[in-house]
């Protein structure tokens, strides 16, 4: 993972200048790392570097002094750890463009939570297709709002890599006084928790927006988590991973707060907005992931009625009231079934 020569093992690059990328850059700098924050928009990079704030995505939150902002992809080659913080649906194109600039053997940490539309691929599978075989890949996920992390508020997430020792080292590299990383070798379990909870948080938002009450929302979140556990078992994720930060922890956060883009998207759907109106200019990863999640579930005969209902509403195949009626008319069964 690095010899420590020239300080390269202390250098971290963050690819993606949105709110989450900026927050992670601040967190890594707070952990004592030298950080390069890359964004493809040269004008935005120059403005952020000069003003020391990402006014578009994180207004009012200053950049850490150890963060340098650039639009030069070649600068990524100076880091042995690169955090890829771009939307799930653009990860493939960004990786393809940045791969030649990465330092050979540099660890790439995937920070998007989603499943690629069209291929129904998890983010680690997309990375495996885009990067040289020798490139170590890790996944970071967990209950975290960008504004909290950027401001240095206490946050804990999970970092997964197939090589457990590498996961432990990367967790140590990125952990700081208020940003705590736990580690695991269950990459697929962490990916499933991150991607699946976005879809299920939309359902929670719909219940809230429709004014169906907190009792109904609590019941839905509990049943949605049961779906997530079934899906994880079918795709090789471990139950203890889903019970942790990247599964239950992330679902609790994103299914209960309007700070979550997915919850807020669902709330607007519940209040009668069309999917296009509900999206506005905010990215809700779950809206893109829903159909892929359902497709993967159906291919292995995993029952996910809540996710199916969300996908149908987003596709315009069901109204919100129709989806609720369908869920409430399902046959009664044992809770663990």
From TrEMBL:
Binding locations of NAD(+) = 16-21, 146, 261, 282
Q: Which reaction(s) are listed as its catalytic activity? A: sn-glycerol 3-phosphate + NADP(+) = dihydroxyacetone phosphate + NADPH + H(+); sn-glycerol 3-phosphate + NAD(+) = dihydroxyacetone phosphate + NADH + H(+)
Residue ranges occupied by any Glycerol-3-phosphate dehydrogenase NAD-dependent C-terminal domain in the UniProt entry = 186-323
> What Enzyme Commission number(s) appear in the record?
1.1.1.94
**Annotated GO biological process:** carbohydrate metabolic process; glycerol-3-phosphate biosynthetic process; glycerol-3-phosphate catabolic process; glycerophospholipid metabolic process; phospholipid biosynthetic process
Ranges of residues in domain Glycerol-3-phosphate dehydrogenase NAD-dependent N-terminal: 12-164
Q: What cellular-component terms does GO give this entry? A: cytosol
Q: In which pathway does it act?
A: Membrane lipid metabolism; glycerophospholipid metabolism
InterPro entries, alphabetically?
Answer: 6-PGluconate_DH-like_C_sf, 6PGD_dom2, G3P_DH_NAD-dep, G3P_DH_NAD-dep_C, G3P_DH_NAD-dep_N, NAD(P)-bd_dom_sf
For the ligand (sn-glycerol 3-phosphate), the binding residues are 113, 142, 144, 197, 250, 260-262
Location relative to the cell: Cytoplasm
Top-level taxon: Bacteria
The Swiss-Prot or TrEMBL record describes its family as follows: Belongs to the NAD-dependent glycerol-3-phosphate dehydrogenase family.
What this protein is reported to do is described as: Catalyzes the reduction of the glycolytic intermediate dihydroxyacetone phosphate (DHAP) to sn-glycerol 3-phosphate (G3P), the key precursor for phospholipid synthesis.
Among NCBIfam families, the record links this protein to: PRK00094.1-2, PRK00094.1-4
* The protein's name: Glycerol-3-phosphate dehydrogenase [NAD(P)+]
| Native source species | Methylorubrum extorquens
Q: Which gene encodes it?
A: gpsA
């Amino acid at each position: 993972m690095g010899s420590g020569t020239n300080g390269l093992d202390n250098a971290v690059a963050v690819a993606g200048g949105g709110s989450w990328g900026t927050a992670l850059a601040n967190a890594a700098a707070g952990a004592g790392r030298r950080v390069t924050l890359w964004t493809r928009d040269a004008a935005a990079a120059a403005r952020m570097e000069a003003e020391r704030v990402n006014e578009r995505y994180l207004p009012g939150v200053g950049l850490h002094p150890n963060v340098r902002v650039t639009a030069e992809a070649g600068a990524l080659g100076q880091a042995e750890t690169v955090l890829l913080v771009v939307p799930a649906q653009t990860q493939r194109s960004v990786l393809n463009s940045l791969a030649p600039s990465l330092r050979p053997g540099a660890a790439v940490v995937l920070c998007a939570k989603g499943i690629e539309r069209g291929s129904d691929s998890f983010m680690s599978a997309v990375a495996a297709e885009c990067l040289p075989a020798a490139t170590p890949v890790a996944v970071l996920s967990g209950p975290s709002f960008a504004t909290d992390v950027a401001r240095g508020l206490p946050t804990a997430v999970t970092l997964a890599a197939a090589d457990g020792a590498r996961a432990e080292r990367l967790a140590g590299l990125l952990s700081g006084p208020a940003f705590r990383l736990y580690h695991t070798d269950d990459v697929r379990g962490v990916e499933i928790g991150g991607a699946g909870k976005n879809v299920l948080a939309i359902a929670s938002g719909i219940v809230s927006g429709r004014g169906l009450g907190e009792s109904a929302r609590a019941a839905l979140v509990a049943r949605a988590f049961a779906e997530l556990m079934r899906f994880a078992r079918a795709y090789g994720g471990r139950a203890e991973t889903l019970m942790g930060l990247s599964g239950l922890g992330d679902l609790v956060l994103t299914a209960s707060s309007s700070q979550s883009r997915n919850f807020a998207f669902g709330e607007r759907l519940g209040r009668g907005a069309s999917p296009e109106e509900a999206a506005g200019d905010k990215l809700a990863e779950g809206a893109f992931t829903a159909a892929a999640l359902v497709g993967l579930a159906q291919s292995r005969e995993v029952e996910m009625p809540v996710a199916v209902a969300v996908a149908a509403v987003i596709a315009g195949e069901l109204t919100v009231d129709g989806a609720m009626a369908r869920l409430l008319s399902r046959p009664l069964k044992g809770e663990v079934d």
